[in-house]
Design brief:
By secondary structure, the protein is of the alpha/beta class. About 35% of the residues lie in helices and about 20% in strands.
Length: about 450
């Protein structure tokens, strides 16, 4: 989107300095001077590092304007700049307000996506299905918080017909606040699982947080809910919007409006199935790996149908759609071993799904190299033990990196893990997975290089 300084000031209750032309257009919004689009507004946020320290770098990168706070604007040490400067009381609040103003400009649908697992992959698949018939904007990577949501909206092209907004929750009320900015007309909830329970405490509290998306939908909107998750399916009672439920053949199949049948996986874990929908039936083949992606694809088909994308076109888009990095990436080492890189993040539900995918690979040895599942609070010990038990039940060898929580002797780090796997052969399959803090994507990269 294009923004004039006065438009930014009006949206953020800010003040435009008059030293330069105030009607020149700025293109987009950014908070990272290293990735700033030429001509974009640089928003200087105060966080662990003060974004005002990077204003010089932003200007060198071609910033078209600055959004700064009163303290920086009034400092005697501030440099002279030759781009528009908009001054606000708090730049974080201003960024949210700018996202809300961007939402006002969008005339099409906004789809909110949340869930303890699967929300980013569902967002990626939905961007593909919707893009088969509509000009679509979607959150980049996992831009799902109070920074990522307004940035996605403020950077949406002016001709956007539908915006797909991923929404995460780190505490009660968080999704509600994001909905106040994005005002979704369609809401998708993928699952309620043990994630961030260090903050939430239990599954019911997680469900309450995710329900905030469904409750925010307008009466003319649609809630798309996973019927195989009882807590998600029950969210139908929290909205005045219409409801569509989807099922990949679990316990919610009887009440599902969108249903997968005849599910199978090929040797590289690509699912194939028949989707039964209110708009007809279609055979679907996914590029995304793992049986757990079937439900995510059904959600994407459901939203596409609600917004008028032809079913055949949406299904064809899924055949080529890729998900964000480090999510069930299947590659082979020079020696032919399969490496399943699912290292972006982990909680008990996603870990169980990844282990099941690993066990489904045709291989003589199945090895899971796992790191810590973070932010589980009081559930930490029992959930790690449950994953270890599941690995044993599936016939999966377990290697733990930097954690004894799985009940096996831990490996000290990535170098040690590489050394332990040096004998991988063409009939072996390895899963690499942990919470984001573990950084095990570096291990996957090392294995593929050896």
């Amino acid at each position: 989107m294009l923004w004039t300084p006065r438009e930014v000031a009006a949206a953020t209750d800010g003040t435009v300095e008059e030293a330069v032309a105030t009607q020149q257009s700025m293109t987009g919004v950014g908070i990272d001077s290293r990735a700033l689009q030429l001509g974009a507004i640089f928003v200087a946020l105060r966080a662990a590092r003060d974004g005002h320290e990077w204003i010089g770098a932003a200007l060198r990168a071609g910033a078209g304007g600055l959004l700064v706070d009163d303290a920086w604007a009034g400092s005697a040490r501030r440099p002279m700049v030759l781009v528009p400067v908009i001054t606000v009381a708090d730049t974080a609040d201003a960024l949210l307000a700018l996202g809300g103003a961007a939402r006002d400009r969008l005339t099409g649908a906004v789809v909110g996506v949340t869930g303890s697992v699967g929300k980013t992959s569902t967002k990626d698949l939905m961007a593909a299905t919707l893009g088969a018939g509509l000009r679509t904007t979607a959150s980049a990577r996992s831009f799902n918080n109070e920074l990522g949501v307004p940035l996605t909206l403020a950077n949406a092209p002016g001709d956007t017909e539908v915006a797909v907004i991923e929404m995460g929750a780190r505490g009660p009320g968080h999704i509600r606040r994001l909905c106040q900015v994005a005002r979704p007309t369609v809401g998708v909830v993928t699952a309620v699982a043990l994630a961030h329970t260090e903050v939430f405490g239990d599954l019911d509290a997680v469900a309450t947080a995710k329900r905030e998306l469904v409750a925010a939908l307008p009466a003319e909107g649609t809630a798309v809910l996973n019927a195989d998750d009882a807590r998600v399916s029950a969210m139908a009672g929290a909205t005045a919007a219409g409801v569509l439920r989807y099922s990949s053949g679990g316990g919610g199949a009887a009440v599902a409006d969108v249903l997968a049948e005849d599910i199978s996986l090929d040797a590289d874990l690509r699912p194939r199935f028949v989707a039964r929908t209110p708009w007809g039936s279609v055979e679907v083949v996914l590029e995304a790996r793992g049986a757990h992606q079937v439900g995510n694809a059904l959600a994407a088909l459901a939203v596409a149908g609600v917004l008028g994308v032809p079913l055949d076109a949406a299904a064809a888009a899924l055949a080529a759609a890729e998900v964000s990095p480090w999510r069930m990436e299947l590659r082979r080492t020079p020696g032919g071993a399969v490496v399943l890189n699912d290292a972006y993040n982990a909680n008990p539900a996603s870990m169980a799904a990844a282990l099941a995918a690993l066990a489904a690979l045709p291989a003589d040895r199945h090895i899971a190299v796992l790191g810590e599942m973070a932010e589980l609070g009081d559930h930490r010990d029992e959930e790690h033990a449950a994953i270890a038990l599941l690995a044993d039940r599936l016939g999966v060898e377990l290697l733990a990196v930097r954690t004894g929580a799985y009940g096996v002797e831990p490996i000290g780090g990535i170098d040690e893990a590489v050394a332990a796997l040096v004998s991988l052969g063409p009939h072996d399959a390895v899963l690499v997975k942990a919470s984001r803090v573990a950084g095990l994507e570096r291990l996957a990269a090392r294995l593929l290089d050896q």
